[in-house]
Design a protein that fits this description.
294 residues; alpha+beta; Double-stranded beta-helix; seven-stranded mixed beta sheet; binds N-oxalylglycine; binds manganese (II) ion
Amino acid sequence: MSIKITDLTPGFVGEVSGVDITRPLNTDQVAALEAGMDRYAVLVYHDQSLTDDQQKAFSINFGPLEHTAGGNVTKAAERRLDAYMADVSNLDANQQPLARDDRRRLFNLGNQLWHSDSSFRAIPAKYSVLSGRIVVATGGHTQFADMRAAYDALDAGTKADIENLVCEHSLIYSRGTLGFTELSNEEKQMFKPVRQRLVRVHPVTGRKSLYLSSHAGTIIGWPMPEARAFLRDLNEHAVQPRFTYAHKWKQHDLVMWDNRTTMHRVRRFDETKIRDMRRTTVAGDRVTVEQMAA
Ligand code: OGA
Ligand code: MN
């Protein structure tokens, strides 16, 4: 059995066959998948019925796992999954859908905004690996936007304008967009803004991409309304249908994406239904810009 990757969207989304990722991979297989991630930016696998441990073991082939601390308002004691599994389901620790007005649910609605995972961390994520354990029949698609193609399509003047811009990213900004503004002092401290370049260069391919995310709330040195208006404009450009792909989940699909070169969002669905999605995150290895002293 050898790994095959075919186009779902040429140069952006690939579909992987010929590998059972529930089992340990050899170095050739890992190299083939990593090369696939560099060539595409999103890889789709089918029929991978994983346990959490298998998902973590698979993800670790691509780098150390990111710890989930600091990324949510869910308290450690309320967690359904362990600290290296990002729980992007709509469930509580008893496997029941969260109530409509549950604060954790309202916070997680932020996943419906276009974003790049962990752009609110000083060292943002490399890959995300999302496993569809229980999927919903209607809605709940995950959309992806190719930020390399979006960058390439900018005019020369805009490229020059943004080349050295630095943004501030925080969960406070993304949730603020939804009117989720009530945060404890501890949460405000935990969600302190970090700095990220607006244009990133991929460490392997050398391709530039727009590093946008709903977490981006201002541009250093700009008045905030001007920064917000400009970021909104860039976002509108970047998520045009020609740059996007929608994944319609089947049970035991697994999708992995490069957060350095893509944005994603989940579309709304009937939240009285169970949608059990579990994410592992491969940590990044560098800041995109030097951080200010705390
Ligand atoms: C994520 C996320 C999308 C989804 O896992 O990072 O944003 O489809 N989830 O649940
Ligand atoms: Mn996400």
